[in-house]
Amino acid sequence: MSTLIAEPAPPIERAGRSRWTWVLVSLGIVVAVSAVRVITGEHEIDTPGSLRAALIATCPILMAALGGLWAERAGVVNIGLEGQMILGTWGAAYFTYFYGPWVGILGAALLGAIGGALHALATVTFGVDHIVSGVAINIIGLGASRFLAEAYFADLDGGGPRQLTGLDRPPSVTIPGVSDGATTLAEQHWFIVSDIASVVSALTTSLNVMTVLVFVLVGVSAWVLWKTAFGLRLRSCGENPQAAESLGVNVILYKWVAVVSSGAFAGIGGGFLALVASSGFVTNQTNGRGYIGLAAMIFGNWRPGGILTGSLMFGYTDSLRLRSTSAVHALLLLVAIGLIVLAIYRYLRGSRTQAAVFGVAGALFLVWFLATDSVPREFTGMTPYLATLLVLAFAAQRLRMPKADGQVYRKGSAG
Amino acid sequence: MTIVNRLLGALVAPLVAVVAAMLITSVVIAASGSSPGEFWSIIASAPADRVYVNIVNQASMIFLSALAAAIGFRMNLFNIGVEGQYQVASYAAAIVVGAALLPGFLNVVLGLVVAMLAGAVWAGIAGVLKVTRGVSEVISTIMLNAIALTLVGYLLNTYGLRAGNSLRTTEIPEGSQLAGWSPFLERDGAIWTLCVLAIVVGIAFSFVLNRTSFGFDLRATGMSETAAVASGVKVRRMIVISMLISGAIAGLIWMPALFGAAHTYGSTFQYGLGFMGIAVALLGRNRPLGIFFGAVLFAFLNEQSNRLTLESDISQNVVQITQGVIVLAVVVAYEIVRRRQVAAEQRRVRTQLDAAKPTTDEAVSA
After folding, report:
1. What does the pLDDT look like over B107-130, one tens digit per residue?
2. Cβ(B59)–Cβ(B47) under 8 Å?
3. C-alpha distance from B114 to closest chain A C-alpha (Å)
4. B162 partner at 20 to 30 Å CA-CA among A6, A138, A326, B358?
């Protein structure tokens, strides 16, 4: 009996430790970024404007990743995220034009959910291979959004066969007082102080409500999936559907809910692109962000905190390359520092080969930084994909996807 | 009886899928306020001579692309990266052929070899990552697609020649251009010489898969990996080899167009053939004959839809919906047919067992 009571203790201890680790890591990042900024003089790497742009670039990726998380936690691989996202861009544009931005967001979710339902019908009900269905949905999504745009937007005000501009945006919020103060402080370019002020300024100056919504959705998803009975059952469908069914969980229903939600989230991500990230709808607006979202989810080890980190990283590099190419060059130094710190950490933890790999990589980045003046714009565009490939190649043992992910489940196969 | 059943199963699914796609397309067109009848009469009308030529050219490239995807699919290897592989390969081939290292025809051969090698290398990365690090080929090939796109874009931006608003590689020498054969008038265009690659690769594909021990191992691995391992198939080696072959075929996809019409890698490069190939491979059930019909169907829809813009108010993009629905419907239909066959088999076995039962009961009572 005593062992039963004693058992829950270790996780609590670990949670406490990891919270402190997070605080330390965040602090370390701020110091490192600030140091790089001061050394290179590239203030653009964390001005409020850069951070705001990064936040806006992050949201669509984050929503796609969140969509992926919902589906894959229930055991359904969803590479149709791209297609569902594209449907979302059209839904957002159409419903915003006629009913305003709030209904527009719902419209984006609705169109994405339709794509998700299609995926659920094929994979969950008919047991089609998940990848096959995803490929088909991407084709349908792209074709449908183009077709619908031409059919419905061509004759609208500000519209054309391939676009719809001049849409109302969801409102933005600026917190008076805090915003001005933080922005002024950020412009002083002081060590650390200005960096923190930049973050505060970015979060308090013309922050779009939809951005807030995105982060709220991530938080709510994390809570629902990990802290409620519903979430436990949903995740059990992704880990061991046979066991779940034998305990009375309606596996098919849960998978349906998860995949339709997945599509809805991806759709909202697409809606964000049309409503907040740019000045309207254009065909093929997602431009592979569904795939980046998928990458962010894998990079984030199928966990909410991880996908948040991955999406922020990918969004940041994506936005920075459009703002300042020289700041991207400064990032090389940051990456070098990060890798060297990681090498030292791994060395202290007793893993010498890994330490050596990270050390060499860090040194290479340092050489790259010192030997060149700029980074080709295209290379930063590759970052998400390369980072994911490298993480998969070198840290695959640490990744743990849901156990029954991608497997077709048939009702009654619990026997 | 079983052969008839199987044939029926193989034919019923695609037919049902095409009918379903036609219905859904009609509904979509009607819902957007246009006339489905108009759409189908335009699509089904006799193609112009020029369009016939285009259909043959497009179908050849789609066929090659589908074969590239199919060889992986046959062993449950999802090479989603055909798109990136043929991009890298086409660029590499255009560079090498443009450099005119060898005279005339030899240059063409060199170009094809380079294309196959480049495609194989790009696909091989995913294969090696899979067997050494356990990385899912689906994810790695998706990532490699994006990397290929940016990498080729970077190389073209850095080393490309400026031609008007766009960049391109050096034009291939005249002696290495293969214009092809014009079945109609000169102005209707030509069927590119290298479309013959589709026939060659199609036959080779069929031969290797059905007549060699490698092909047998590959199919065995696809049907049951554990059984294949038990019978001595080296699955890891098979994965790498089939990825390499898949990439090499992918490298050839755009070659007919490169030597036949484009002559350089630039704004005339045709994107999207890789994903279309995947769709056609699924439609044709990864068999050369099925893929052939699928490729012709897709090429036909693509080319005929061009007329929609001129002759009606229907967007030509609607055929993409048709194509996507065909693929989704066909895989669903195959799955339903398969489940029915399994159920029928189980019923048959049960009736046999039930028929056998009384005798055992008698034996027990006796």
Report:
1. 999 999 999 999 999 999 999 999
2. no
3. 24
4. A326
